Every structure is written in C-alpha cells, then in structure tokens.
Amino acid sequence: MLPMRDLLALATVVAVGWSCVSERISPPQEPNIILIMADDLGYETLGVNGSTSYHTPNLDALANTGMRFTQVYATPLCTPSRVQLMTGVYNFRNYIGFGLLDPSARTFAHYLQAAGYRTAVVGKWQLYGNERQQELAGGRVGSVPEQAGFDEHAVWQVKERGSRYTDPHLDVTGKPSQDYPGSYGPDMFGDYIGDFLERSRDQPFLLYYPMVLTHDPFQPTPDHPDYIGSDPGNGVNDTTYFKSNVAYMDKVIGRIVHHLERLGLRENTLLLFTGDNGTDRDITSTMGDRVIRGLKGYTTEAGTRVPLIANWPGVIAPGQVNDNLIDFTDFLPTLLEAAHVETPDDLVTDGLSFYPQLVGQADSVRAWVFCDYAPNWGGFPARRFVHDRDWKLYGDGTFYHIATDPEEQHPIADQALTADILQLKQRFQTVLSRLRQ
Fold this sequence. Notes:
The chain has 437 residues and is an alpha/beta fold. It has 12 helices and 16 strands.
C-alpha cells in the first residue's frame, strides 16, 4: 500500500485550473460535515451540469453558491465505490466482495469519531452481505454500521433487504429491524436527519447519507399522482418514473438545507454531494442535443463519471466550476483535512485531499485517476485502467482518446501517437505497474 508521499511522487502534479475571486472567512476548526451520495446518478442528470431531462433546483442552487466539479470519477458499481469512498484506498487493497465492507477496514467515520465527532449514517447500507455474497467471498462477512465507525444509523439493507421505498424495511439505532407500513423510505431518512441535526447542533458531527434514490425499482414518489401510499412494488419498475425520482431526490436535499438554516448550522457545515456510479443502463438522458445512455457497470465515462458539488457559505467562494480530476480515494483525506484532524499514525491512503481547492489554497492537483475494477457482480469482467481528462490506458494496453471518444469505440495504436503522447502512455503504464497487489 502506498503512503501518500509515495503516491504523490508517482503522480505528476499540475497547476490548478480555476481561481477564486470572492473573499472568504477563515474555516472553523471543527466544521460539521455532510456527505450525500445519490445511488446510480451519473454526471448528466443535474440541470447545473447541462441536463435537459430533469429538474434539480436545490442541487443547482448549491452548485451556483458553491463549487461544481466536472471531472469526478467513481468506480462503475456501488459497492466498490462505497468501499473506496469510505476507506480512501483503491479496491484491490480491501474490496472483499460485492455487498461487503471488510470489518478490519478503517473508514472516515472511524477517524472523525476518534477526533470527537458525532457520526451517523442514514440511507442505503448494503455492506454486511447476504448469504450468497458471503459465500462468494469465501465465507467472509461484511460490516454493520457500528463496526464502520458510526455512532448511530437509520439504514436500509443491513442483514435483511425488504423495500427501500414504500413500506420500507429499516434498521434504526435502538429499534428492532422492521417494516414501516404506510411510510416512504426517503421521507423517513429525511425525518431522521432532521432529528439528528437537532440533537447534534452543539457538537461537531459527520452525517453520511448514501441515498436510496435514484436506484431502481423506479416507482412513483409521494409527489407523483400514481403514488398510492403502500407498496406498489410487486415488481413495479417503470423507467417513466425516473424523472420524478430525480426530482424527489433533489427535494429531500432541499429539506436538509432547510434544516441547517433553521438550526443556524449552515455557515459551519461543509456539504458535499456526489453519486456512486453512472446512471442505470435502462435510462437515457439528454444534455441539449447530446443523448446519453446510462452505463452503470461499464468502465466508460457514462459508467464512472459522477457529479460533485461542494457548498460551504462564507468559506467556499460561490459560482466556481472546477475541472480538476478527483477520484473516490480523495474523499477520506479531504474530510480529515476539513475537520483539521491531525494525520493519524496508522493512516495510509491512495487519496489526495481536495480540501485546499475548496478554500482557494491549492497549488497542485491530481494528474490521473486510477481504477481497479473487480466487481464480482453482474458478469462484468475485471479491468484496470488509468486516465486523465484526455487519454485512457487499460491494463491490456488498449489506449483511447476519451476527450473525443468517450464511448471508447476507437482504440489508438502506438503508430498513430505523437512522441509526447507515447511518453504519457508510458507514464500511465508506470502507474498501472506500481498500483497492484
């Protein structure tokens, strides 16, 4: 495993490609942190990113009053992304199987909890594993929220599945795992978050909110005329409801912002929003004249590029668009630096904190994004790759100019490359050679 100093020596750092023009206040020493991650929501789905298919006014407002990133990459699939996000290391180091988080892994919640933060996870868990997932992992069992560093939780799918939407089956701290007839899962999560914020207003807190929206099954929300207040499920999974699912996701986020404002916590809270992988493969969206099919599970841009918005009134200057590369290992060191947590002696991360970029102090950024993708789900083959904003190299030597070929239809042979691009390809190969078990 590479310590950060070795990772930076391996990377080529480049000048920051954005600037801050607004004055900011000094960040508080122990800010509250809220990390929200939508499920199966690619870059193309937000209005502020150019979507012409969906309505996302609350997220658009957060972007317009904060910082919007354009080059953020997850893995193509939920569990690998979640494990990478929470632990700050690439998947070949600690990904033990689909639906599992290694109980020995250290997460951002562990480090912030040790620093005195109240920690909570609300939303989708899916990291303990069912019998089949545990069998495929050689009998290994994943983690429950307490093992991952969370003081409290209100989550769907720990040891039992059930519904995530209407009549949800939830695990809530201090209560038995149970169904909640007549309720709607995202509303219950929003209510729990409001209560958590109220109870935690006098101490620093970390709220991690991996949403259940906008994952299938695509069903009516309470704002849709087809919603009937009980499980329409019995197999209902209609892509025509996806648009209303996106709208409801945005509405729930608006509720969280309202809670922060009501409690006077807005200026002391760093709020981050992202997605865990590309949009569902049954969903087609538009960005003006451009038509984009979601490619969750696949390693192209439509499977890995996700939104990222950072908002912190008075600290992050408004209206910024950041084109620098970010990958999911970067979140853990970012959260720790934002919280001014002294680097633990046992911390080893593949990530590079983007906190300095948020506060206008960065002088170097990530030069490439790496992914080791062994999904153990859906029949997708294992693949390794590294890329920057323009070029992408796979472990088998296939090389693409993704700036003009985002769907990766036209591999480029060495004979067609200039000397400079051949050198870049060799640097990518060095990364692939170094980042392996």
